[in-house]
Every structure is written in C-alpha cells, then in structure tokens.
C-alpha cells in the first residue's frame, strides 16, 4: 500500500450548476498541474482530520465536519517510482467557513463539475473524478490507477468496488 493521503473536493452551486474547488499546484508533487486539494495523512490523524487540516493550510477554509461525505478511494501506483505510490481517501464537502485563499502550495479555482480542466490535470483524473463528483453512487467507489513508465500516462485503470 502507498502512503496514506487525502483529497477533499468542496462543492458549491454556481449559476451554471455544480462547481468544484480544484487548484494549481505551486510546488512539490504535481507542480504546475490542476489537482484536488489535500495531502499526506499524518501519524495519529484520521483521513477526515487530515482533510480539514490540509484545506485550512492550503485554502484557508474551515470545513464543517457534518457536511463532509466519504467519496471513495484511489490506489495510485507508480511502478517505475514505487516511492510515489499513494493510498488516497476522498471526501466531498458542501459547507465550510472562511474565504478561499491562495497559499504557497496551491492557487485554488472553482470549475464547473461538467467542464473539468482535465487537460491540465493528471491524466488519470478524467477516469475517476467525474464519477466521484456526480455523487451518483450509494456506496463510495474504489479505484485503481496504475501509471506507465513515464509516471504520467495511465497504464491501467480499474473500478475495484463496490
Ligand atoms: N496520479 C495522481 N492523480 C491525481 O489526480 N492526484 C494524485 C495522483 N497521485 C497523487 N495524487 C495526489 C494525492 C495526494 O493528495 C497528493 C499528494 O501531493 P501532496 O500535495 O501531499 O504532496 P506534497 O509532498 O507536495 O505536499 P504535503 O503532503 O503537503 O507535504 O497528490
């Protein structure tokens, strides 16, 4: 299993429908890409606690724990770079306090759920993110993403469950 990480997708209703908060990564892993907000789960933290800490650190918002919904998992595998493997737990959240801000880590931006910036994201996001964000599942889905030798192209994608 890869390093435990979390992603949390804030959702709001815009004029054209549902919108999600993503952001341009300004440093570290995936720099330059549009990514979900989140990061590594620290020792002693639950995934939900890590999501609240990361969203406060990366985007200045305090999530309302009661408005967080478990949204599945992604097992990210990088066979050419196994130290990059990550076991990702996901949440959506529809209520928070504070104004979204830009930090050293990320420049957050709202996108319509039906027009995700997939050309500027990790190539695999197109496979799983629309499913996660529609929320049209009763049980949160579990995905497997295996990257090719270049650590960018998707070699294998699978929905493991439910
Ligand atoms: N193939 C992939 N596609 C994708 O969309 N997101 C991926 C991915 N592989 C990893 N991620 C995400 C999951 C995780 O939340 C994030 C890890 O990057 P982090 O922001 O945690 O890394 P950093 O080391 O820059 O920062 P910290 O954890 O804050 O130290 O990358």
TrEMBL record:
Cofactor or coenzyme needed: Mg(2+)
Q: Which domain of life is it from?
A: Bacteria
Keywords from UniProt, A to Z, are: Hydrolase, Magnesium, Metal-binding
Recorded hits in InterPro entries, A to Z, give: 8ODP (IPR003563), NUDIX_hydrolase-like_dom_sf (IPR015797), NUDIX_hydrolase_dom (IPR000086)
What Gene3D superfamilies does its record include?
Nucleoside Triphosphate Pyrophosphohydrolase (3.90.79.10)
Domain (Nudix hydrolase) spans: 1-137
**Is ATP-binding given among the entry's keywords?**
no
Q: Which SUPFAM superfamilies match?
A: Nudix
Q: Which principal EC class is assigned to this enzyme?
A: hydrolase
Annotated catalysed reactions = 2-oxo-ATP + H2O = 2-oxo-AMP + diphosphate + H(+); 8-oxo-dGTP + H2O = 8-oxo-dGMP + diphosphate + H(+); N(6)-methyl-dATP + H2O = N(6)-methyl-dAMP + diphosphate + H(+); O(6)-methyl-dGTP + H2O = O(6)-methyl-dGMP + diphosphate + H(+)
Q: What is its EC number?
A: 3.6.1.56
Q: Which protein family is it in? A: Belongs to the Nudix hydrolase family.
State what this protein does: Oxidized purine nucleoside triphosphate hydrolase which is a prominent sanitizer of the oxidized nucleotide pool. Catalyzes the hydrolysis of 2-oxo-dATP (2-hydroxy-dATP) into 2-oxo-dAMP. Also has a significant hydrolase activity toward 2-oxo-ATP, 8-oxo-dGTP and 8-oxo-dATP. Through the hydrolysis of oxidized purine nucleoside triphosphates, prevents their incorporation into DNA and the subsequent transversions A:T to C:G and G:C to T:A. Also catalyzes the hydrolysis of methylated purine nucleoside triphosphate preventing their integration into DNA.
Q: How does it assemble?
A: Monomer.
* Listed name of the protein: Oxidized purine nucleoside triphosphate hydrolase
Q: Provide the species name.
A: Sinomonas halotolerans
């Amino acid at each position: 299993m890869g390093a435990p990480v979390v992603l949390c997708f804030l959702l709001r209703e815009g004029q054209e429908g549902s919108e999600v908060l993503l952001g341009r990564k300004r440093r570290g892993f995936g720099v330059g890409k549009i990514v979900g907000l989140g990061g590594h789960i620290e020792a002693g933290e639950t995934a939900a606690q890590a999501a609240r800490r990361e969203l406060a650190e990366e985007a200045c918002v305090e999530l309302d724990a009661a408005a967080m919904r478990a949204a599945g998992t992604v097992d990210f595998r990088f066979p050419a770079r196994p130290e990059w493997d990550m076991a990702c737990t996901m949440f959506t959240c529809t209520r928070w306090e504070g104004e979204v801000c830009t930090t050293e880590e990320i420049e957050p931006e709202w996108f319509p759920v039906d027009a995700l910036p997939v050309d500027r994201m990790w190539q695999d996001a197109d496979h799983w993110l629309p499913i996660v964000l529609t929320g049209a599942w009763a049980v949160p889905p579990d995905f497997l993403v295996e990257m090719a030798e270049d650590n960018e192209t998707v070699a294998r994608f699978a929905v493991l469950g439910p």
